[in-house]
Amino acid sequence: MKYFSANLYVKMLNCAIAEGMNHEDFADWTTSLEEAKKLEVISAEEFLTAHELLDDRLGPGFGVRVGQQMIIEDYGVLGLSWRTCSRVGEIFERSERFFKLLSNTFVWQIQKKGDVSHVILHREALRRGMELSTEASLSATVVVLQAMSEQKIAPTQVSFKHSAPNDLSSFDKAFNCPILFNQPQYAISYKTNDLNLRTSKADASINSYLLKQVDEKTKGIKIPGSKFVRDVESLIKDALPTGIPSIHYIADLTAMSNRTLTRRLSETGVTYRDLIKKTQESIAKDMLRNTMQSVGEIAFLTGFSEQSAFNRAFKKWTNQTPSEFRKSI
Prior knowledge:
Layout: E1 3-5, H1 6-18, H2 33-36, E2 41-43, H3 44-58, H4 62-68, H5 76-82, H6 90-102, E3 107-113, E4 116-122, H7 128-149, E5 157-159, H8 169-175, E6 179-180, E7 186-191, H9 192-195, H10 200-218, H11 225-239, H12 247-253, H13 258-266, H14 272-290, H15 295-301, H16 307-318, H17 322-328
Parallel strand pairs: 5-6
Antiparallel strand pairs: 1-2, 3-4, 4-7, 5-7
Helix pairs in contact: 1-3, 1-4, 3-7, 4-7, 11-14, 12-13, 14-15, 14-17, 15-16
């Protein structure tokens, strides 16, 4: 990993200031707080060195305390994709796709054992700064999952590959569960049922749609074809960062059988496959026109597993590459 998000660096320095440091304390740092706010990324060397210096200055558990201050918006495009997850644990699937597509760095993997799911973070900690960064990542996981579910779900166990610091008070407060050190892998474990909880956003949007279904069945108020297609498009858009959703997945969200969903779309003159492509093309064009997101990030948000595959598809849709399309606007 050569770079980290500048947002994470800014969050770290702001947390240090909240714990008593001053702006002047960073005067001789390569990248100041104000300079970092103008950047997209910060070098790994600077980022990890900052973790080490601040842990020495502010005491063990500083990374954990930084993690507790993280919010979904701090994660940029990846955080944006989390907002549309249907299940809490889906954030790990999206994170795995994101990092594999954009940087091939570390991978989240879920291993289910009985009623507990172990979320493994495959990351090599070759220096102390990376160990501290991983402490922040696992700590942030706790607050992000609580924000996604709007419930106080808590891990059942947390594991670190490195040795324990001499003060665990910040760890105990953040994780509130058994914490193991000198383990073969980094991991945070949850009850499987907690990871399968509907996200608060998914509950609201799906419940709204299902209420329309109830009206249609009990009051004879049929959802207009064009409105029905827009509703399905919206569900597809929300699902794409996890990969192209199967028709069974969307049918399940709409409380329909595959056959009924196919028939309802056919009545409006479209197929499910056509709707997938239309939604992907619409999202891609809109983001190229109206955002500064990279082509790789747009490929992720539109459900592609490789940027090259996205480039080929976009060329087929528009007879232009994504970069050519953006330049022509």
